[in-house]
Write a structure and sequence with these properties.
With 344 residues, the chain is of the alpha+beta class. The chain has three domains: 140 residues, no CATH class; 39 residues, no CATH class; 145 residues, Trna Endonuclease, Chain: A, domain 1. The chain has nine helices and 15 strands. The strands form five sheets. Strands 6-9-10-13-15-14 form a six-stranded mixed beta sheet, sandwiched between helices. Helix 1 crosses helix 7, helix 2 runs parallel beside helix 5 and helix 2 packs antiparallel against helix 6. The chain is elongated. One of its GO terms (biological process) is DNA restriction-modification system.
Length: 344
Amino acid sequence: MIPVQNIYYMLSYAFQALQAQNYKDLATEKFHNTAELCAAILDKGISVQLKRGLGRDYLPKSESLSTLQGKLSISESIKTQTLLKKQMICTYDEFSTNIQFNQIIKSTMLLLLKANVTNTRKKRLRNLLLFFSDVNEINLRFVNWNQHYNRSNQSYQMLIGICYLVYNGLLQTQTDGTTRIMDFFDEQHMCHLYEKFLLEYYRKEHPELSANASQIIWQLDDSASQLLPKMQTDIMLSQGNNILIIDAKYYSHMTQQQYGTNTLHSNNLYQIFTYVKNKDFELRELEHTVSGMLLYAQTDADVIPNNTYQMSGNQISVRALNLNQDFSGIAHTLDDIIQNSFNK
């Protein structure tokens, strides 16, 4: 079980905005579950956004008016018989806060009010909802979460990211089609958070390295590449032509059982080996080293992998990162990986 405080640190790296001064006190606050943590982050973040001002945009609005405004809709005026009241249906653009970003935030706050969150936090959320009185609630199931951000709406990026985690972590559809509230992130979404945390940790804490989630090109004997899958790395760390490819794995079981014996997940090992050998061949004309690592989030399993293999001229390591410890210990392990890989 990962302490909620460590999930906060993981979120802090995944969303760099959480390392700003406004959120510093959350690092010392104790949360009894992830729903409470997300509610606290949104509480802070929405308060900051309100000081900036809620985002607005021009939205079309139609209503019955006694004076002409915008575009007159004659057919609607006749259909609704507003002319009998000496009024007309007019359509015009209104500079409104009822934009999708604000709708997502309002709907997420309403969802959190049904979750396992303290009454104090719920009261704060209800107070914030007063500022969203002109914003419509929407069904989060139909939201396109791949939003585009620019300088005018950049402040919403972290807020929408937290809303996404809340929606996916707090809702679960049951077999009868109804929905129940949960108070934890499922394995799939923790896996995405784990990957993002590792990448952003290395970007921030090790600026001497280049840290990216780069694609690797298949090294083919001809140009026939149809139907080949993309080789998308989780983390590629490089210093010159010295490269470490990390595949982040978040499973309930770090090993598999074969004939009563624990072994590494074969697909994971095949995958990292393929990544390393293709990258190695790509740099064959240069002096270089390419190594790979499977970095599992440690579970309470009896077998904890900590192995290094020399495979066809390349080093492949398998490590476990214990997320159930003080965060300083997590940081030490991640820093140790860099020390062993690049500062030999």
